[in-house]
Amino acid sequence: MRKSTLLLLVPALLLAACSSTKPTAHSVDGYHRPLPAPSVASVRQDIPEAQATDTVLPTATGPFGARAVISVPKAAPTGKFVVKPLHTGHGRAAHNGDVAIAAYSAVVWKSGKRLADSYKKDARPRVFPVGRGAMLTALDRAVQGQRAGSRVLVVAPPAAAYGAGGNAELGVSGKDTLVFVVDVIRVIAARATVPGSQATVADTLPRVRMDHAQGTAAITVPDRDAPAKLIVEPLVTGAGPVVKSGRTVVLQHSSTTWKSGRGELFMSSRAAGQPLITAIGRGNVLRGWDKALVGQRVGSRVLVVIPASLAYGAHPPKGIPANSTVVSVLDVLAAV
């Protein structure tokens, strides 16, 4: 199956170098077939500004969280890019860098043909960083500024969808206007952390100090040899759903290598202000993460000490010593 070149990709640092095959980046939602984004090369620079309404508009019926019934008028579209809230929710508003969890229904204006959406069998809501160009422009713009719980009607001319090239796989021509109804299910702040007091860990394990105001984590490694086996130590146990293999998870993470008495971070979503979105249990991240997170509950914070065989092995990325034990602190913010 052909994949888009603008789907969310897992950073290379999160891929274990000890695999028997060369690591590759995978789309975070490869276990179902969502509406793809256009390729980087085909993204139009003249995307029109979104309008709040138009003289000719489709209508949508049905409850929030279910496939919308979209009725398209017989009149031709005006060519305007429209983002019109149908219902305003009461949750967090989506800002650039936040993570949105959204479901959508979609049709082609001219033909009324229904496109692949979030409600077909085995499909799930989309999970993506807001305003980062990781989604089809129409869907990305649809959630910006909207509150969780909102339903939004989107009329997307070609410039806000697939451009002049269209999308032959979906049966969308370069002249087709698309109509979406987007349900903003949840918005996760860019620097969100899981709430709750941390459990006390043994003196033989690294210590984690959270700064919830800044959304940062500090890791202090004990002055002793690293353990030889994978250690998974829940610091906060969440009350959300159990994470299953293949689900898309939203994580805050901070990682260091085991150096006695130290803890300089070499990787941190918290410092970057951008949670990680990835499929878990599918080899997209360090093997130690896959093993540690499957079975945890959403809302958990987990300390993971990962031996080299489940991390980067003898061929790590630049700046990480070979055969390093890795210490990670992972907040499980969502699983879809």
Automatic annotation (TrEMBL):
GO molecular function: peptidyl-prolyl cis-trans isomerase activity
Leader sequence segment: 1-27
Residue ranges constituting the PPIase FKBP-type domain according to the UniProt record: 97-188, 246-336
EC nos: 5.2.1.8
UniProt-recorded name of the protein: peptidylprolyl isomerase
Protein family (similarity comment): Belongs to the FKBP-type PPIase family.
One Pfam family hit: FKBP_C
GO cellular component: chromatin
Principal EC category: isomerase
Domain of life: Bacteria
UniProt catalytic activity: [protein]-peptidylproline (omega=180) = [protein]-peptidylproline (omega=0)
Keyword annotations from UniProtKB, A to Z: Isomerase, Rotamase, Signal
Species in which this protein is naturally found: Streptomyces antnestii
